[in-house]
Each structure stands twice: as C-alpha cells, then as structure tokens.
Amino acid sequence: MICCGYMWKSGGEDLQGFYPVRSEYVADVPRTRFKSRAGKTLSARRWHAAFTEDGNLDMERVLRRIQRGGIHPSIKGEVWEFLLGGYDPDSTFEERNILRNHRREQYYAWKEECRRMVPLIGSGKFVTMAVVAEDGQPLEESSVENQGWLVKTAITDKRLLQWMLVLSQIGLDVVRTDRYLSFYENESNQARLWDILSIYTWLNPDIGYVQGMNDICSPMIILLEDEADAFWCFERAMRRLRENFRTTATSMGVQTQLGMLSQVIKTVDPRLHQHLEDLDGGEYLFAIRMLMVLFRREFSFLDALYLWELMWAMEYNPNLFASYEKPENRNNFSQQDPRLLKKYGKFERKYVKSGHNEQHNTLAVFVVASVLETKNKRLLKEAKGLDDVVQILGDIAGNLDARKACKEALKIHEKFLKKANRQ
Amino acid sequence: MSDDDERGEEYLFKIVIIGDSAVGKSNLLTRYARNEFNPNSKATIGVEFQTQSMVIDGKEVKAQIWDTAGQERFRAVTSAYYRGAVGALVVYDITRSSTFENVGRWLDELNTHSDTTVAKMLIGNKCDLESIRAVSVEEGKSLAESEGLFFMETSALDSTNVKTAFEMVIREIYSNMSRKQLNSDSYKEELSSNRVSLVKNDNEGTKTFSCCSR
User: Fold this and answer.
1) How far is it, in rounded angstroms, from Cα A146 to Cα A72?
2) Do B47 and A249 touch (CB under 8 A)?
3) Which residues contact A269 (CB under 8 A, 6 or more apart)?
4) Tens of pLDDT along A63-107?
5) How many CB atoms are closer than 10 A to CB A31?
C-alpha cells in the first residue's frame, strides 16, 4: 500500500501515496502543500546518518533539518518518538531497545487489565452503543442491538463505570475519524484506534476521553506499526496537550490557552483585540478547535503532520525525555549551560535565553495568533459579529501554509516577548 | 413607521442545533444549508455555523444556525453560544434510545442558558433507518407534546423533512415577532449586532409532523 518511488531528485515524489485517500473522497480532501525538499527536509538517509555507531543521535542536526523542511513520510514515526521526548537522543541503540521492550510489555499488561474488564478490548471489535446503563445496571438485552458484549452484573465502582460509559462515545468518534483515508477502511485499524483511546482513558481518569483526542491519536497509529509504540507516541503527545482536555462542569482546559491567546493578541495587536472584544469575542472561543486538535481540520492530513513536527521541533527541549521519565528532577533543569542552547528548538531557545524558563506559552497559541494576524484586515473591516469572525476563519481551511504559519508565529512570539518585557 | 422600516427590513434569526453526539446535527445543517450529506463528517469540536435564507411574506429572512459539539464535556463552552438564540432544534437519533432519553437534559440546558427561544423543535433524525428503529414515532410525538415542542422525523441522508423542519422553525419565529418589537429601537440595535432576542411567547401551540407515521 505504501508508495515508495524515490523520485525526489526530479522533484516529483508522490507523498500523498504514503497516506492513500479512498478514491471516492479524493475530491473532498484539501490539497496537500507539503513537498519533500532536497537539502531541507529530513530524509531517511540524513536521519540514519545522524546516529553514531552506538546509536547516539545528533539531535541538533536533526532539529535543524526538521525546522527547515519537516520530515520525510518514510521515517516520520521514528523521528516523532524522539521529538516528543519518548526516547533520549543521548542513549544507545541497546538502551533504547530495552526501554522499548519494557514499554511494550507495560502497554500489553494494561491492555490485558482492560480486556479483563471489557473483553472487547483487543478483540478487533468495538462498540458505538452503551454497554451499561448510566446507573451501572446491566442493560436489557432486548433493548440493545447485538454488539458482542454487555455488562452482566451491576457496576458499583465509580471509576470503572465512568470508563465503561465513555467507551461508546469513543466508538462513535472512531467510526468518523479520518474515514477518507484508505487506512481506516480496514475495521481492525479502527479497532486499534478504539483500543488505544480506551486504554488511555482508563489510565487517565482525571482527563478521561474528550472528543478531539481521536484526531490526535489517529496519525500515531498510521505512522507506527506496533500498537504499543503508537500508544506511547500518543501518550507523549498528550503530555503536551492533555490540559486542554481537562473539563469541569463550568470550564474546559483549553480556555487557559485561549486566555494566553487573548494576552498575546492584546499585546501585539491591541486594535484587533479590541475589535474582537467589541464583538463579544474576547474569550476567543472561536479558536477552540485549532488548539484542541492542532489544526487537523484546517490542513490536509500530511500538512497537519508537517505542522505538528515543525512545532514540536521548534519547541524541543533537550531535557524533555528526562523530565518525563524522572519528573522529580524537574527543578534541576532550569540552570542552563549556554553551550547547550543549540540543542533547543528555535521557539524554546528564546525562553531559555531570556531566562523565562518557567511554565510558558506553547507555540500553538502563537500559530493561532499568526492565523488571526494574516486575517487581520478582513477581521477589522468585515467582521461585524462573531459569526463573521467564524466565517472568515473558516475560509482558511486548505489555504494555510504550515511553514509560513510557524515562521509568522515565531515573529509574533518575538514581538510579544519584547513588548511584554517592556511593560 | 419610517421609510427606513419599509424598505430596509432584514431579518436575522439565530438558531441552535443541540443533542447527543453523532445524532446527525452537522449533517442536518449541511443538508439544509448546502444540500449536502457527508458520510464521513467528523465530530464537531466546539461550534460551527451556517446561514441560509428563505423568503416569507416577500421578505428575506436569514437564519444563522449554530451547530455544537454533542459530547457533554463541551457544554461549558458551547452553552455560551445559546445566548440570543430565538430558535432551537433538539435532535436525537431514532436508532439509539439513549439519545432520546437525553432530550430532557438538552432542554434544561437550553432553558438555563437562553431565555429567548420562541420556537423549539424536537427532531428524530435518521428516519431512513427504519429497520433498526429504537424510538417510535409515537414516543417522539408524545414527548414533544408534553414539552410544548414541534416535532418531526427527518433524514439528513435522504433529505426527508429537513427543509420543512428548518423552515417551520423559522416561520414560527417570524410569526412570533410582533410588529411592535420589530419597530422598537432596541430591536434594531440588537439586530445590527446580529443578536435578535425576543420575549418568550407563552401561548405557542404544539404541532407535530412525522415522516414515517404508519
């Protein structure tokens, strides 16, 4: 299924072939802009050359490439594992193999734990209908379509019940996740997505499952063949994103980022901020989707992946791996050796340089800001209501350039830091 | 009445579509606004909207229809969009009874966050899936009657009743607007900021329509 014509010297490589679209939907998906560019994009050859014999990775070199031109689809998965802090570039092949095997065992143990509670996990099947009543009582068999498995005895454990109740929601979203990709024509791939999301939800009851997590998880399953590896890659991506998905009856976590966005626009473009505020849009709720699913809906599949890897490379911090593995040492990372600066991504470096190494804004907020800025004129001139704002921003689908958006985002970031320091 | 009112009359109604996840809210809207149905439509994150116009009494009436995420956990942010809505479609899926059982919650939600809705319609969607129906037409009708809602069964897939349902809500809103309110300065002011609000009319009748009554 994977197309491997290495034709890039002639510049005509069909990258879309890596993620084939079902023929009946070709007309419906946004055009892909990403092109593998010689000398800029991280190629398989460059990637493999960046390792020493023992397996130490020259992350600095790799980051430089990615920030220039993204990652070739043939190696995306394995590079992402490093970008997301899944593996330490300073480790050896052997050390990483041990860690990988350990993680796989851990994942399959969790999966087994879940399967014992709900035998559908790992069965290749999944549910879109409830398996238990909301009060924990078994459902009457006759009232439900036969879907393979139902709770037989009442569930009293609160965490277990919460989890079981959300499994059908995950199923409802899985069947409509990236359906236009040939990959998801295969029901076992849908089931894998359901398994991973279900297991993640079981392990993270504080966040649970929120719509949009499926959009984040879907690419991982496509890029990483081993299910456990895909799970861990998703888990690492969620480390960055999970707070967005934390909800209470009165708030959603993503509103924190919306608040930052509001601060950024207020600082770099007070006129636009005022205008949005006048339209009752000062809460920037219209940007929720961009932040929650990281522009998956505004870009084609491949372009969204390109944007993600650009952002992650720019946000890369050499302490990422250690901070995830040994969070107790987190405070030791604040003292930076200036010689290490090159090991940081462009965005992160700015913070380290300026000494603001505490909790700070994510690049995604600045990417949204850059999108708003590109529409600045239209927003100021034409937007007479919040509906116009949504409409104008809706027009960007398929018209954004990931690289330009990131470049602009860095500029806005710079401007923001300068102005914020002055205030 | 000034000349201004005679020629420049423009109606803009804000309507919300709410209901459980995957009942077909987005597809009902795209069927109505663009006559399209997308079998691969993705879950709505946050809110989206479309506008569609119709002519009543020779006047152009524009409906601005807001489509919201169905998962309960989005309510904290989606409910902000209920404000100023004069119409609401509460949708369930006739093949999943849980989505019907949750209608009451959605109505509560609507009443809490918007006191301006004059026209509400209960919609049983996916009526093309008769063979796996789980909620009968009668159940839908009787709930609508007890809650004082219009009722209709629709299919976004084959278009059944979709246009009729939206237009009925829009007409109801239109006919509920008294001339007095239309001509008041405060109304014009609100109209200009795209937020039409009306006092709730107490004596709304209940009419029911169904596509699949046997």
Assistant:
1) 44
2) no
3) A372, A373, A376
4) 999 999 999 999 999 999 999 999 999 999 999 999 999 999 999
5) 9
Place of tokens 């020779």: B58
Contact yes or no for B76 and A247 at CB 8 A: yes
By three-state DSSP, how is residue B54 classified?
A: strand
Distance from CA of B130 to the nearest CA of A (A): 14
Alpha helices in chain B (DSSP H): 3-7, 25-34, 75-78, 97-101, 103-113, 137-147, 162-176, 179-183, 185-192
- Tell me the C-alpha to C-alpha distance, in Å, between residue B110 and each of B69, B86, B117: 14, 11, 8
Going by C-beta distance under 8 Å and a sequence separation of 6 or more, which residues neighbour residue A405?
A: A307, A367, A370, A371
pLDDT band with cut points at 50, 70 and 90 for residue A15: confident
How far from the centroid of its chain's Cα atoms is residue A378's Cα? 29
Contact A285 B73 (CB under 8 A): no
- Between the alpha carbon of residue A92 and those of residues A18, A58, A77, A100, B13, the distances in Å are 29, 12, 18, 12, 64
Instruction: Name the helix (H) or strand (E) containing B91.
Output: strand B87-93
Within 10 angstroms of residue A294's Cβ, the number of other Cβ atoms is 24
ipTM of model: 0.88
**Cα A226 to Cα A101: distance, rounded to the nearest angstrom:** 11
Distance CA A359, CA A4 (A): 42
Measured from the Cβ of residue B51, the count of other Cβ atoms closer than 10 Å reads 13
A142 φ, ψ to 5°? Answer: -65, -25
Residue A8 burial (CB count, 10 A): 16
Confidence bin at A394 (pLDDT 50/70/90): confident
Q: Is B1 on the interface with A (CB under 8 A)?
A: no
Q: Is the CB of residue B30 less than 8 Å from the CB of residue B50? A: yes
Order of strands, sheet of B59-68, starting from the edge strand that comes earlier in the sequence: B47-56, B59-68, B11-19, B87-93, B119-125, B150-153
Between B42, B64, B76, which is nearest A251 by CB? B76
The reply to whether B25 touches chain A by the CB within 8 Å rule is no
A254 CA: distance to closest CA in chain B (Å): 10
